[in-house]
Design brief:
This is GIY-YIG domain-containing protein. Strands 4-3-5 form a three-stranded antiparallel β-sheet. Strands 1-2 form a two-stranded antiparallel ribbon. The chain contains three helices and five strands, in the order E-E-E-E-H-E-H-H. It has one domain: GIY-YIG endonuclease, CATH 3.40.1440. The N terminus and C terminus are likely disordered.
Length: 127
């Protein structure tokens, strides 16, 4: 699995209304990307625990990772050091949220996927 941009239907695009109502021809599609992501943490391993995975969605990967690592992210991520193992880019929040739900469900049931993701300690980021 690698980061990818999903090919979405026209309805998934975000439209920005023209500031000048007379000039409808200048309406442009403005895409604010959203991301579904998987984080990994090995913080509990030193205490005899196992590595952890967390999935979520955001508009800004770097800012969200910083929030998780500073204790201001989701409650389940507090007190651990996280890194991004996988992310996917989407054109809408709804699409990213749907993928997050898929990831959460899949990560709970698919042990081989969990092992593959946890093997990515030094996952290269290109965003």
């Amino acid at each position: 699995m690698q980061a990818c941009v999903r090919d979405l239907h026209e309805k998934d695009r975000v439209m920005k209304p023209s500031e000048n109502k007379k000039d409808k021809a200048d309406d442009k599609v403005q895409v604010t990307p959203c991301y579904a992501y998987v984080l990994g943490s090995w913080s509990d391993c030193a205490k005899g625990g196992s590595p952890r995975l967390y999935s979520g969605w955001t508009h800004d990967l770097d800012k969200r990772l910083a929030a998780h690592n500073s204790g201001k992210g989701a409650k389940a991520t507090r007190g651990r050091v996280w890194q991004i193992l996988h992310y996917e880019t989407f054109l809408t929040r709804g699409a990213a949220m749907s993928r997050e739900a898929e990831l959460k469900k899949t990560l709970k049931t698919n042990q081989s996927l969990r092992q593959e993701l946890l093997a990515r300690k030094d996952y290269p980021r290109d965003a």
